[in-house]
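Support request from a user on the community tier.

User writes: "When I paste my structure tokens into the form, the page sometimes reloads and wipes my input. The last time it worked, I copied everything first. Here is what I submitted, just in case something in the input itself triggers the reload:"
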């Protein structure tokens, strides 16, 4: 019943409340308006087009009307959302974070790369960013690049010479030598270029004798888990876990959690991202009113423990708190599972 009320109230709040956290993101975009050279020149919101995807900027002047305290609150809530953004890429594909690192390294170090190849890589990267991976957000179908593997390899090797990937702070898998970079490229080749390899985020009509889990690109299950393995299995953490199959066949839920400061709950999957988010959320709580500060700290606790009861406590308090600066933060899109 709590969950039903939570969803009903969530709809009400989405309709009635202005999410200032979104406003801040849009204001940051609007600070550096891009020149529009497309055939739609004169439409100030259109920044660029890549194929059928349009990138727009929207000014959110309402942010300026917030008090300094509310602006600080919005800023730290925004930083918390950025902190967990990598989780989305990893949930969509087990290759997502590696693809993201490779593409962003090239984009940040383009000196000397063939302009035609760089244009194609840049366009693909923009689609990759906007869809949080190389599957289209709406259709769930794989986005194939227009550049070739050879063009990608050449660009990556030049980017490495220009200083890309010197340090590794996210994946802990260095690609700081040409040998390691060549291995990384080979490891990612199929996921980027093969149209028949994991063509859908969630394959509801799998082909080739595979089941839904084996055919889907999403990363909620380890690759060795099949649909048959789930017979009789009941998840304890349906909103925030990845199901792993151990060597002896045992199924284990790898829970998304930061761990508690006292060490009683150990860090789990995505701990570095959730710990960073919690640091930002704690700063946000310092600028919130007492009622909303409790809501924010409820979420911090859920990120620490991963327990569903803590998620319900957060949701129950969140729907009762109709704050002027509201926020959404989490990973509950179960329809992709």
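"...and here is what came back when it finally went through:"
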């Amino acid at each position: 019943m709590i969950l039903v009320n939570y969803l009903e109230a969530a709809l009400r709040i989405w309709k009635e409340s202005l999410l200032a956290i979104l406003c801040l993101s849009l204001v940051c975009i609007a600070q550096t308006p891009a020149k529009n050279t497309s055939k739609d020149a004169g439409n100030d919101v259109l920044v660029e087009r890549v194929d059928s995807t349009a990138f727009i900027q929207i000014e959110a002047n309402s942010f300026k009307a917030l008090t300094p305290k509310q602006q600080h609150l919005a800023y730290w809530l925004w930083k918390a959302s950025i902190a967990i953004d990598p989780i989305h890429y990893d949930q969509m594909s087990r290759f997502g974070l590696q693809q993201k690192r490779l593409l962003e390294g090239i984009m940040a170090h383009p000196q000397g790369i063939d302009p035609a190849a760089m244009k194609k890589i840049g366009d693909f990267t923009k689609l990759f960013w906007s869809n949080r991976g190389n599957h289209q957000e709406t259709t769930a179908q794989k986005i194939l690049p227009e550049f070739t593997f050879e063009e990608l390899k050449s660009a990556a090797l030049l980017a490495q010479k220009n200083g890309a990937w010197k340090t590794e702070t996210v994946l802990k898998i260095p690609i700081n030598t040409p040998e390691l970079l060549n291995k990384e490229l080979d490891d990612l080749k199929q996921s980027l270029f093969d149209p028949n390899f994991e063509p859908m985020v969630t394959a509801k009509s799998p082909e080739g004798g595979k089941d839904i889990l084996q055919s889907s690109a999403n990363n909620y299950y380890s690759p060795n888990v099949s649909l048959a393995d789930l017979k009789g299995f009941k998840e304890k953490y349906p909103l925030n876990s990845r199901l792993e199959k151990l060597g002896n066949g045992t199924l284990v839920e790898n829970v998304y959690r930061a761990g508690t400061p006292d060490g009683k709950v150990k860090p789990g999957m995505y701990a570095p991202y959730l710990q960073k988010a919690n640091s930002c959320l704690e700063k946000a709580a310092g600028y919130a009113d007492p009622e909303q500060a409790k809501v924010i700290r409820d979420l911090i606790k859920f990120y620490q423990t991963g327990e569903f009861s803590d998620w319900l406590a957060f949701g129950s308090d969140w729907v009762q708190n109709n704050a002027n600066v509201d926020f959404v933060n989490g990973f509950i899109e179960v329809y992709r599972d």
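Agent notes: The reload is a front-end session timeout and is unrelated to the input. Confidence is low (pLDDT under 50) at residues 1-42. The chain is about 45% helix and 5% strand. Escalated to web team.
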